[in-house]
Automatic annotation (TrEMBL):
It comes from Chitinophaga barathri. Residues 154-327 form the DUF4872 domain. This is DUF4872 domain-containing protein. InterPro entries: BtrH_N, DUF4872. Pfam families: BtrH_N, DUF4872. Residues 11-142 form the Butirosin biosynthesis protein H N-terminal domain.
Length: 332
């Protein structure tokens, strides 16, 4: 049976990268993977509905972190999707029989080791299957505190869940991993890309402009869509921030940890200082979620309004813009 060193992480995609690469002798922390992959982002997409309400994202789209890290560190990956569950499970069995841990995309809803309250229809969750025992698959899910198992039927359902994005049995595994890499170039490339996405995308829905775009919409929610839908819209912003993956504030804290680690590695004090500034921005996001939750529950004792929430978001946008403008000018 393949031995696999499992470490619990904050986010599934960057966690799988860290755990899987470590298995092959390439030591990389989860924050470093997240930073090199330029995972930090913001987007508010009113035309992309999630369960009938506008979608908000605090990180780059699923799969992007993985592909960028592999490219920048010189890791070669094998990746497959499948038209049928039988072919997908046969391919998985063949690879793990060779002692190769396999990463895969799955739906959270069909993972029985998750508590019922955490099982919802989210099809971009990443995990590692590293073996098979008594008909069950051995699983390293990076957001769990220890390894676990899953039966054949539930794994098939998780790999072939319907809805966007359809996993289609996606599985991937490294075929070539360098034991040592020079992180300076990948760190520089990751920071440059993150600054571009946060500051320079011309469309108003993305980056710091996207936070301001959302702020204006939040202020108008009650007048535009009515109190009931306003509550649903606001609730989804909180859910996407605090429950999906690592959450908006969590991704800010993780990127701040990357900047601290990069500053230590490159002996760059400014990177460390900017990391502290971004940690403070993460605290602002947490405060926003708390206040928004009170508004959703109509707890008016603190007299918080949708207008106040919009102003909180505008302040967050200003602070994030300061951080990324400063970061874009750092010499690495």
């Amino acid at each position: 049976m393949t031995q696999f060193s499992h470490t619990q992480t904050a986010h599934c995609e960057s966690g799988v990268i860290s755990n899987m690469f470590r298995h092959y002798g390439l030591e990389i922390s989860e924050p470093m993977a997240f930073g090199i992959g330029a995972g930090i982002f913001f987007g508010h997409l009113p035309f992309v509905k999630v369960n009938g309400v506008p979608g908000t994202t605090y990180r780059i789209w699923p799969g992007a972190i993985f592909s960028r890290v592999c490219k920048r560190l010189g890791v070669k990956m094998e990746s497959h999707k499948f038209g049928s569950p039988d072919k997908a499970m046969q391919a998985l069995d063949e690879v793990i029989a060779k002692g190769i841990p396999v990463g895969m995309q799955s739906s959270v809803y069909y993972l029985p080791y998750f508590p019922a309250s955490y099982r919802f229809h989210f099809n971009a969750h990443n995990l590692v299957v590293y073996g098979k025992e008594n008909g069950d698959y051995l699983v390293s899910d990076p957001i769990m505190d220890t390894v676990t198992t899953i039966d054949h039927e539930n794994l098939v359902q998780a790999r072939f869940a319907k809805g966007f994005p359809e996993p289609k049995g996606k599985m991937y595994y490294p075929v070539s991993v360098p034991k040592q890499v020079d992180f300076r170039g990948p760190i520089r490339a990751g920071i440059k890309q993150a600054c571009y996405y946060m500051l320079k995308i011309p469309m108003p829905m993305f980056g710091v402009k996207g936070i301001r775009f959302l702020a204006k919409r939040v202020k108008d929610y009650p007048a535009k869509v009515g109190d009931r839908r306003a509550g649903l819209y606001l609730g989804n912003i909180i859910r996407m921030q605090e429950e999906i993956g690592t959450g908006g504030a969590g991704f800010r804290f993780m990127y701040a940890a990357f900047l601290q680690e990069a500053g230590l590695l490159l002996k760059n004090e400014e990177l460390k200082a900017i990391g502290k500034e971004l940690t403070a921005v993460g605290d602002l996001w947490r405060n926003f979620a708390f206040s928004a939750g009170r508004v959703c529950k109509a707890r008016a004792a603190d007299n918080m309004s949708y207008g106040d929430l919009g102003n909180m978001l505008l302040h967050i946008a200003d602070e994030e813009e300061k951080v990324f403008r400063r970061l874009s000018k750092v010499k690495i």
